[in-house]
User: Which sequence fits this backbone?
């Protein structure tokens, strides 16, 4: 491996070069900004070339290759603290690199078509390359501080890209919100680094993993919990998940790349990276699992009620990330990474599909305006859609494939990874805190049902039935003739991702499935690949139980699809939703109000802090602190004013004073 | 090289004299630019020739003859690891400051630039002075031009602001002057055959041992002066006012250079001169630093004036510096030094940018802006980088300083608790909050004011003066070791030396009699006893000796009682 490790820095640096090239030239030259195809090609290549390098490394490596590091230079050094710009190549980091650059390159390609009409085209691609650069630092870093650079760097790019259309205040609000919620997590992450450094004296993963025994169980729990808080920020889990749905304000390729496929999985990556550390504390693992399961179910319930096509996908992402956390907490790091990979395929496909739909709806709005009809509607609202499968056949087909994949129908990608998570959670139910894990497993099962349900609600509501827009607006009659499929650069990407959503699951076929027929088997490629880098819990279930669980999860998914089909097949989106809302009453209102979490944070923390600063602190600063300073000055001035009267300039009064003084002195001498 | 150092220090002063003879306003500007650029270029060899491994040694040292009668006060300038970076920051910022006021200053141009140039000589002298008295003289040399810069070329409330700034600072420094004379005499008694001296090498020598009573009083007097200058909460109320009323150049110099004199003086004089007191009072200063970080951030958040917001953010950033210095770890102190440089660069850039906005729009109110990004794309990029540097994004300079300070104070044995660092780190969240909120309201959203639709992007001169700052913001962020290496050895030596002297004073003083004047001082101040207990506790923790460590019998009694 040592022979190839020098290639690793190039993986990171090429996207940086792409950012600098497009960014600087775009800033400098108006003519350059018009060369959109060239800009797009440069940016896409800046991600695709690193993908090829990573692929080359992948073929040079095997499951039992040792991890290797390469250090570029010393980054920060002072006193006893030192850290390098250093990269670590092992199976885990390479897997993430492949996902980031592979899916990243596809989304860049897609975005060339999607963003073609935008005047900030160059800026968009510069930021996207910068994101890839930061993300690769995150996954390839050989120490926590460089990881943190990537960690905050992806947060920055997320900020820049969510607020890409900055003239819209709501969008820049969403950007700021994302950054701040992430900062809260980053704060915890920072403290975790201090604690680790205090014990280990280094932030390199190699030394941290070698020194996990140096920590007491309490320290492990504390540090782990802090890292977990950091991860809940980046990976949108309870309590910090509320920024992600708002983040959909960004252009759709951004949602696909950053807020579905890559950045939001970094929390899962970090915990997997530190799996031997986390495994030391069962309480910590339980905490991770509980957060994951509850996030999964809460986000799924919210997703049931949303009409915005991207919002449904956003909550679905939060929910799926919850599944991954549940896996981490159950000691199933391979399963979590497996779901990271398959989720990257089908969720990117879904988001880009939704982008294709939004693209078409926007086009309709523009065309109607061109015809002089002033129809204003939300191009992301499902209530205006319906029946789109006729007009966007490629989008429909790929969207449907990805929906089946996420719902968990075999043999598509999502089935294998989600089933493995469910199995491993049940498996954790056999160990410490078993009863709780069984409870979490039940929650996950219910969530799986809801996932299948809301995803089919989304697909059926968007693509089946009749096109509803003409029925909503008098002037929009005949609008369907403006609906058209997206260009080839976009649909081809959809098909690639759709294809991966079909076959992606085969990298992690459960061993027991094959073993049932052949005795023993060692077919789970992913688990073999990650064997050296993650430390998984032992699987203790019998084959029979595993088969039982497998059929159970298929049945649950099928049931979800069946119910959704019954309710939404005809395109009666709103009336069916009304029925559901009546059935669930107050619960439904809580779901559609997103559990009021935004309002609680806003009203409980943000506004009181601002009000306190405004009405108490800044007043105190003016009247209290500065007032005191002025008060001292006023005393001096007053004293001066009093003394001034003795300085009359009249000789007689001075003489009078002298006489008085002399008398006083004489008296004092006499009567001492 | 010694000569070169002196040339660098006095070239600006010479330039100021030259300006008297120049009538043409443009000539004045070009001469100032030429002088400051030449100063910067000439200072580069000083950096290149600097021996980074020489710890505890002053380089390029010039020693003159005693010039104050019987006192052994000499002209002494030189550089060491503590001052090198700040010295360079001063020469680097000067041409930028000159360029930034190219078009904004229309009246008394020659006066304005000569004030800037005198200010520069004063600032360079402050950082290069190797004698406490020279330090004081150079410091006063910076106060006068600053007084006029704010008072003549400032905003509407400039007279009030400048008088307040001047008198507030002066009060602190006069108190320090008294303490300084005391130090001079004491040093004379102990290390200079009875002749008054303020030679830095002598007053930090191991034989110069102030007892704990003296240290306490002197520490508080010096500390008071530096607290006002930095400023440390709650002595900061002159700062927002002075910053808002000062012209752009004044704000930049104030933020980038003048405030650093306070923090630099803490590191150069306050800690090494009074080691025991500094250690004893470290937690108190760290608390003030942490309060400053949070308080400054919270107050900054609700400001309606951009410039005032940046001013309050300065208080927050300087809180980090204070925390780092009083952590008494190399990591923390190194972080503090690089944070001083960082704050100079990023806050300097922010003030320059606010100045550019003001020049175009004649307003600093956040509410008067909105959607500016559309009109001024190039400035947006610069503004964004400076903002991100200010909120400590990894990869830019601000992060390096803040991180080192936090690591250093988290593991500090003198502070003895990680909570300082934990609470200080909350400032990182708040910083993102107030900076991004401000940035959003100024730059993003739709353009709501007609006037803003006519704004023009920054021109070549403005780009030219911002780009060098941006380069250093990124450079320090990615390769901070290129900078921290200059102070590393010196800081490590200084802290070790300070600790060693604190220990020595604590244990050596045991058998000795205090001089009569110190005895007297103690007799009239029984209320200090409680402070002594703190000092003693700290000392016994430091010294491995089990005996109570103090020269004064009464203090010993106190300690025995408390034990």
Assistant:
């Amino acid at each position: 491996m040592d022979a190839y490790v020098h290639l690793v820095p190039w993986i990171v640096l090429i996207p940086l070069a792409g950012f600098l090239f497009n960014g600087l030239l775009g800033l400098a030259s108006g003519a350059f900004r018009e060369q959109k195809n060239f800009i797009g090609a440069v940016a896409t290549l800046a991600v695709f070339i690193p993908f090829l390098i990573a692929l080359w490394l992948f073929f040079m490596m095997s499951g039992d290759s040792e991890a290797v590091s390469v250090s570029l230079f010393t980054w920060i050094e002072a006193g006893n603290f030192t850290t390098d710009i250093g990269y670590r190549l092992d199976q885990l980091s390479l897997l993430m690199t492949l996902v980031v650059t592979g899916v990243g390159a596809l989304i860049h390609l897609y975005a060339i078509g999607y963003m073609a009409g935008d005047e900030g085209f160059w800026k968009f691609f510069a930021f996207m390359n910068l994101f890839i650069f930061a993300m690769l630092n995150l996954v390839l870093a050989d120490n926590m501080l460089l990881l943190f650079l990537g960690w905050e760097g992806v947060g920055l790019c997320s900020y820049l890209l969510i607020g890409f259309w900055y003239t819209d205040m709501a969008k820049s609000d969403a950007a700021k919100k994302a950054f701040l919620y992430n900062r809260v997590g980053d704060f915890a992450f920072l403290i975790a680094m201090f604690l680790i450094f205090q014990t280990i004296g280094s932030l390199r993963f190699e030394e941290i993993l070698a020194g996990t025994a140096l920590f007491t169980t309490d320290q492990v729990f504390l540090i782990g919990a802090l890292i977990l808080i950091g991860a809940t920020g980046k990976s949108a889990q309870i309590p910090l998940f509320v920024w992600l749905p708002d983040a959909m304000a960004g252009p759709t390729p951004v949602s696909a790349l950053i807020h579905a496929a890559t950045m939001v999985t970094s929390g899962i990556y970090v915990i997997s990276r530190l799996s031997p550390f986390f495994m030391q504390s069962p309480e910590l693992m339980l905490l991770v699992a509980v957060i994951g399961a509850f996030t999964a179910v809460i986000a799924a319930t919210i997703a049931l009620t949303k009409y915005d096509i991207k919002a449904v996908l956003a909550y679905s992402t939060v929910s799926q990330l919850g599944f991954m956390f549940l896996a981490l907490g159950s000691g199933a790091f391979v399963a979590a990474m497996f779901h990271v990979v398959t989720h990257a395929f089908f969720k990117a496909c879904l988001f880009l599909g939704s982008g294709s739909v939004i693209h078409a709806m926007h086009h309709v709005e523009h065309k109607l305006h061109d015809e002089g009809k002033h129809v204003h509607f939300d191009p992301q609202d499902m209530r205006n859609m319906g029946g789109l499968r006729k007009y966007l056949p490629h989008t429909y087909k790929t969207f449907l494939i990805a929906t089946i994949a996420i719902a968990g129908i075999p043999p598509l990608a999502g089935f294998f990874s989600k089933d493995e998570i469910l199995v491993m959670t049940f498996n954790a139910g056999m160990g410490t805190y078993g009863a709780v894990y069984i409870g979490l497993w039940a929650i996950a099962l219910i969530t799986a049902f809801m996932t299948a349900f809301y995803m089919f609600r989304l697909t059926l509501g968007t693509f089946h039935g009749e096109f509803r827009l003409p029925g909503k607006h008098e002037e929009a009659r005949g609008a369907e003739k403006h609906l058209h499929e997206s260009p080839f650069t976009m649909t081809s990407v959809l098909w690639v991702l759709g294809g991966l959503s079909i076959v992606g699951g085969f990298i992690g076929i459960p061993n027991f499935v094959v073993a049932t027929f052949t005795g023993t088997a060692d077919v789970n490629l992913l688990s073999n690949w990650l064997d050296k880098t993650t430390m998984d819990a032992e699987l203790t279930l019998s084959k029979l139980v595993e088969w039982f669980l497998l059929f159970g999860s298929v049945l649950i998914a099928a049931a979800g699809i069946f119910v959704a089909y019954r309710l939404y097949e005809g395109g009666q989106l709103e009336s069916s939703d009304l029925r559901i809302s009546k059935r669930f009453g107050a619960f439904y209102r809580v779901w559609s109000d997103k559990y009021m979490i935004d309002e609680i944070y806003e009203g409980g923390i943000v506004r009181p802090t601002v009000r306190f600063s405004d009405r108490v602190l800044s007043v105190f600063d003016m009247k209290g602190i500065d007032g005191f300073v002025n008060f001292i000055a006023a005393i001096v001035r007053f004293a001066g004013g009093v003394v001034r009267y003795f300085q009359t300039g009249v000789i007689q009064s001075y003489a009078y004073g002298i006489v008085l003084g002399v008398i006083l002195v004489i008296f004092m001498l006499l009567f001492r | 090289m010694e000569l070169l150092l002196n040339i660098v220090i006095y070239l600006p002063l010479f330039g100021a004299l030259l300006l008297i003879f120049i009538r043409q306003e443009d000539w004045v500007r070009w001469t100032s630019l030429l002088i400051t650029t030449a100063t910067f270029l000439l200072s580069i060899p000083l950096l290149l020739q600097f021996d980074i491994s020489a710890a505890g040694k002053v380089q390029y040292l010039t020693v003159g003859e005693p010039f104050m009668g019987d006192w052994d006060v000499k002209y002494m300038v030189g550089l060491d690891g503590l001052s090198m970076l700040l010295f360079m920051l001063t020469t680097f910022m000067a041409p930028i400051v000159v360029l930034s006021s190219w078009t904004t200053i229309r009246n008394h141009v020659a006066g304005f630039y000569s004030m800037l140039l005198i200010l520069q000589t004063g600032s360079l002298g402050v950082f290069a002075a190797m004698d406490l008295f020279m330090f004081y003289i150079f410091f006063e040399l910076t106060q006068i031009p600053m007084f006029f810069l704010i008072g003549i070329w400032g905003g509407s409330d400039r007279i009030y602001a400048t008088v307040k700034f001047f008198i507030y600072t002066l009060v602190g420094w006069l108190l320090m002057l008294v303490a300084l004379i005391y130090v001079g005499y004491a040093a004379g008694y102990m290390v200079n055959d009875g002749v008054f001296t303020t030679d830095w090498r002598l007053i930090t020598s191991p034989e110069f041992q102030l007892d704990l009573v003296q240290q306490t009083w002197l520490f508080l007097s010096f500390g008071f002066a530096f607290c006002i200058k930095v400023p440390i909460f709650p002595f900061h109320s002159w700062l927002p006012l002075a910053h808002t009323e000062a012209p752009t150049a004044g704000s930049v110099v104030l933020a980038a250079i003048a405030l650093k004199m306070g923090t630099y003086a803490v590191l150069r004089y306050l800690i090494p001169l009074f080691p025991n007191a500094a250690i004893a009072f470290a937690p108190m200063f760290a608390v003030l630093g942490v309060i400053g970080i949070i308080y400054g951030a919270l107050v900054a958040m609700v400001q309606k004036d951009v410039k005032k917001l940046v001013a309050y953010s300065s208080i927050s950033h300087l809180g980090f510096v204070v925390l780092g210095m009083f952590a008494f770890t190399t990591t923390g102190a190194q972080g503090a030094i690089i944070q001083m440089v960082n704050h100079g660069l990023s806050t300097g850039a922010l003030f320059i940018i606010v100045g550019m906005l003001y020049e175009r729009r004649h307003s600093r109110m956040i509410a008067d802006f909105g959607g500016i990004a559309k009109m001024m794309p190039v400035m947006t990029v610069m503004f964004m980088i400076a903002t991100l540097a200010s909120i400590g994004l990894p990869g830019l300079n601000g992060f390096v300083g803040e991180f080192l300070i936090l690591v250093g104070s988290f593991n500090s044995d003198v502070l003895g608790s990680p909570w300082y660092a934990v609470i200080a780190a909350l400032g990182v969240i708040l910083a993102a909050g107030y900076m991004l909120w401000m940035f959003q309201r100024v730059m993003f959203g739709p353009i709501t004011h007609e006037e803003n639709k006519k704004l023009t992007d920054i021109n070549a001169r403005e780009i030219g003066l911002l780009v060098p700052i941006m380069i250093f913001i990124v450079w320090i962020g990615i390769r901070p070791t290129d900078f921290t290496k200059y102070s590393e050895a010196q800081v490590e030596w200084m802290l070790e030396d300070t600790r060693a002297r604190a220990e020595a004073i604590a244990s050596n003083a045991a058998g000795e009699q205090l001089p009569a004047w110190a005895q007297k001082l103690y007799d009239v101040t029984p209320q200090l006893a409680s402070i002594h207990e703190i000092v003693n506790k700290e000392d016994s923790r430091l010294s491995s000796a089990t005996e109570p460590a103090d020269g004064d019998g009464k203090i010993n009694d106190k300690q025995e009682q408390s034990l």
